[in-house]
Amino acid sequence: MTHELRPTRVYADEILGRTVVGATHGQWRVVERIPRNRPGHTGGHFSAGYIAEDSAGVRAYLKALDLSGAWLGPDPTRALESLLAAFNFERDLLSHCRDRKLDRVVVALDYGQIVVDPVIPSSVVPFLICELGDGDVRVLLRFSKSFDAAWAVRALHHTATGLMQLHANDIAHQDLKPSNVLVFQGGTEARVADLGRASRKGHASPHEHLTVAGDLSYAPPELLYGALDGDWRARRMGGDLYLLGSLVISLFSGVSMTGLLIHEMQPEHRWDRWRGTYTTVLPFLRDAFDKAVSAFAEQVPGELRTDIARIVKQLCDPDLSLRGHPRERAKRHGNPFSLERYVAEFDLIARRVERGMRAAVTVTPLAASKRASNR
Amino acid sequence: MSALTGDRDPRRVVPRWRDAHTAITTGELDPIPVRDPSSLIESVDDALNVHVRDWESHESIGFAADLVSAAIVLDRGASALSAARYITRHKAEAGDVAYMLATRLLAPSRETARDEVEVELGATSLPDRVRASTGVSIAALRSALRRDPHNAIAWLDLSRLYARVGSKARAMRAMQAAVSLAPDHRFVLRSAARLSLHRHDPDEALAILRHSSAMKEDPWLLAAEIAIATVADRVSRHIKLGRSLIASGRFSPFQTSELASAIATVDANAGTIKAAKQMFRSALREPTENTVAQAQWFARQAGLIQLEASSLNVPRSFEAQAWLACSERRWDEAILATWAWLDDEPFAGRPAVLGTTVAAVALNDPGQALRFVQLGLLANPASDTLRNNEVFALILLGQLDRARSRRADIQESRLTEHDHAVYLANSGLLAFRGGDVETGRNYYRATVAIARQKKNQLVEGVALAFWAAEEFRRLVSGKALRLEIGTPVPDDPQANSGETASELASKALGLLRTAGRSVDRDLAELHLQRANSSHR
Lengths: 375, 536
Hints:
The complex is a heterodimer. Chain A is of the alpha+beta class. Chain A has 2 domains: 12-131, Phosphorylase Kinase, domain 1 (2-Layer Sandwich); 135-355, Transferase(Phosphotransferase), domain 1 (Orthogonal Bundle), CATH 1.10.510. Chain A is built from 11 helices and 11 strands. In chain A, strand 5 (108-115) and strand 6 (124-131) form a beta hairpin. In chain A, helix 4 packs antiparallel against helix 6 and helix 4 runs antiparallel to helix 11. By secondary structure, chain B is an all-alpha fold. Helices cover 68% and strands 0% of the residues of chain B. Chain B has helices spanning 20-26, 38-41, 44-57, 61-74, 81-89, 91-94, 96-106, 126-147, 152-164, 168-181, 186-198, 202-210, 219-231, 239-248, 257-270, 273-283, 289-302, 318-327, 331-344, 350-362, 366-379, 384-396, 400-408, 417-433, 437-453, 457-485, 501-515, 519-535. The two termini of chain B are 22 Å apart. At the A-B interface, helix 6, helix 7 and helix 8 of A face helix 1, helix 2, helix 3, helix 4 and helix 6 of B.
């Protein structure tokens, strides 16, 4: 039987906050607790976030696993088993990503455990140390006239690259959303974070049994409607493509593709009411999808509108058989969910926008001086 | 004589064809249950809490939009009201998309029927206004289809709009695209079958339904197949399967209502009244409005069943309400329900025919009759029945030249017997109103002769009633003229026929009584009574 963990009233940071700060592990020393709500705190109900510092003063994010919550549940041994399995799965994934040098994925720098109280055997706190970002992309989101399109597209380029790196290693993220895209270097760099809900082909994943492994509010429609494709690539990588498309919408508008889709649908067709097959609801979803993309496209700056709307349509198509780049789909033996073309496209668009901005910066003083000389 | 109302025309439970937005509200598109989303719904609150906590600690646009979006997906709008208000207060910073979602949360109700585009066109005619507004909707759909040609719903709605303005070939092409995209989808298949019927091609409708693998599993599709087979004068091979689906208990009474109704119709036509009654009882447990209309037709025509008044409360029961009001001579209500019926099925000829007759005869409002007929002709420009109706309305409006011109457009040789009788009667009416009394009488005599030959007492009675009414009308105008010039009024002369107007009326009433109770009889009697009383 699979045991689904439920959060308890006691959270890790409330227990461990007093005790873990100051602890050391190798070159790392825990220096500060991150409030649960701070962006960058990617832990769930059973973990707490800390800042750790190495001897050279490099700061990192320490994710400590709170096993104490498991003891308070109805079946502690099963809960512990599940928690540790999930932790180990994520640890192994992050280590794998580090070993493969995935530079657009937030990887593990170290891991280990801290014994909080040597007298109490159960006070062992397993932890992971990852790179520390400046926060998640939501902090930087503004959609006014001063919207920074160059930043948004560059962040998308970095994120798509990170996702492609994961896919190249047969890892599907499954929970890509704004809070899981961390920014570095004052926002100029973005990386994919939190592999806690990921799936690795050929490896048992602790969340494999869940219909929706990631955030329900961002989930691809086929998963919300229970249409689970038996093919790992279609279900997991196809889902990631949708989440990447949804991230495009989030960076340009703040809302998710799923939010826009549901907004455009009749209540009768909502995922939580519909009791029919996905095939029978698909034509209505598709109709809502067109309206959703059109509404979104209106907000995209004119020079980017066509490209961004097209990319979103391809990435988020509610029909899995139409999702992805048409040229990749057309290949007989290709990968319809390949991200290569999108990485290249985001890079190209980002360069175009950046060039445009540089031109504007250089042209403006000239224009101004010309106006001045005309006076 | 106007065209008859169609009261006695056979009725089958053929699928309605509504736009997607409206069809959804009828429950006709509710799925056959195969999944239970409750396990996912259980995790909704956990999923939402993450966004709520983030928002509570970071009051900014990014977090507000994130929560509003999540609340819409998770159907927890109340948890995101503060975020939604924040967005509306910071509209410039939020952007249009987040603002749109935030206002949705703050004011949830909205109506977005796609083909209800209104255009301001001043004093142009009703058909022109409809044509223009439909044109705007068509352009919007074509634009949507350029963006995404895989949108089957848009193709369907486009097809219906083309049908509304009489572009049947375009309607068919759009429908074919929809069917190719969703070849087993109930809404698509029922709409496609209905369009084929609209094009008078029941075989094509049957082929569309039978080609789908979904038909034998879906009571809605099976209902359509059985009903359309009767239109094609055949008996479906799937009636036994239909009965077993109803008996299986796998479907709600609402889901099998039209199937039971379609089988009841077959049973009734075959004379197995007991089985028909049993099926109608099943059909009426949770009826669709189409079932109500069907049951009401049987109640009206054959007294086969008793329909409870509450059945008419089923939403969009416009057809049943119109006919019930007609049969109870509540003409004002009848005309309102008929407008609603025409609005519901703007491509259909039946509501336009009924509306024309009731407006022209019962309400003495030929202007309104003309509006009905113009809308009917917009969708069915080749309908001889509606062309006859147009001539009739124009005559009553006194637009005799226009009536003559429209009458000349009708090819007499290709008319059905029914339409030919109406055509001749209209010709008689036109001659009378034009002052050519003898020609008028001859046309009416020809009409009566055809009806008598076919032993159709209703048509004969209606023709005689309208003829008599014209004789009375002539007497009234003659009386007024003589009174004006001070000569005595002759007693009801009918120079060539030997029959007085009163005798014609008496004969008409006798035939109408023999023909049995019908809306057409009521209308003819009313018309005659009105003409007779103005004569006295």
